[in-house]
Structures are given as C-alpha cells and as structure tokens.
C-alpha cells in the first residue's frame, strides 16, 4: 500500500462560516480569529513600548455609539475607583491590569454580535464569595446604582 501524504495548504478549507457562529467542526468564528489577530498586534505594540492608555482610548473611540458611551464611562469609573490598574488592550478589548495581568475588561456588544456589553473580571480579581461567584456582568446601560456596584467590585478586585 502507498503512503498517504498530508494535505498541503491548498487542500485545507476554512472552517469558519464568517457569520459569527462556530462551524460544526468546532473551528473559530471570524470574530474569534479577528480577536486573536488583534492580540498578536497588541503584544507587538507592547514590545515596542506603545502608549497603552492611548490605544485603549482609541479603541473605545472607534466603537459604535452605544458601546463607545458605555466604554468611556467605564474607563472613567475604573480609572477613578482603581487607579492602580493600568489600561491595556486585550484581544482587542479595553482591559485594566495590575502587574501586567488583566484584572477586568470591557467587551462591547458589537465585539461578538451580542445583545449586551460585558464587564468581566479575570481570576486575578479577588471577587471570591464562597464556592461560586459571578465574574462577568451583562450591561445594557449604566445607572447610578450600577456605577456604585462597579466601583465596589473594582475595589474588591484589586485588594
């Protein structure tokens, strides 16, 4: 019997549908591939010593109006409530880090075509409450009570 040769690049087919829905074979969506490309660019920019806060503000400014308004407000809240967190881009999203490790991030609704934006916290945030606690919060709008809750979460996250 003859040996089978592995398929070359020209024989490979894209598994993504381009619609934001994962393919049946489990490949990455177009949005996920874009986020990975953004992350690679962020790492190159950081290696060059890029101004990360300027990059975060530019990313927020480029968002659609609803996400931009929420991103600007969250940026102001985070900078005031947790001044020790440094802004940085993380997979194309505004994020805030302590010691180089992301503590929280903002994902606009348009990022992955969801119906709400997300404020998420990484495992670096100390939000532990017993055996189970939330690490991401859906945001449709920000009221004064929501802003107060976010400030409280940020203060707990960085202690």
TrEMBL record:
Start and end residues of each stretch annotated as Disordered: 1-35
Pfam families the UniProt entry points to: DUF1801
InterPro entries tied to this protein: YdhG-like
Organism phylogeny: Bacteria, Pseudomonadati, Pseudomonadota, Gammaproteobacteria, Lysobacterales
Domain YdhG-like as annotated: residue spans: 68-158
Designated name of the protein: YdhG-like domain-containing protein
Biased composition, class Polar residues, residue ranges: 13-22
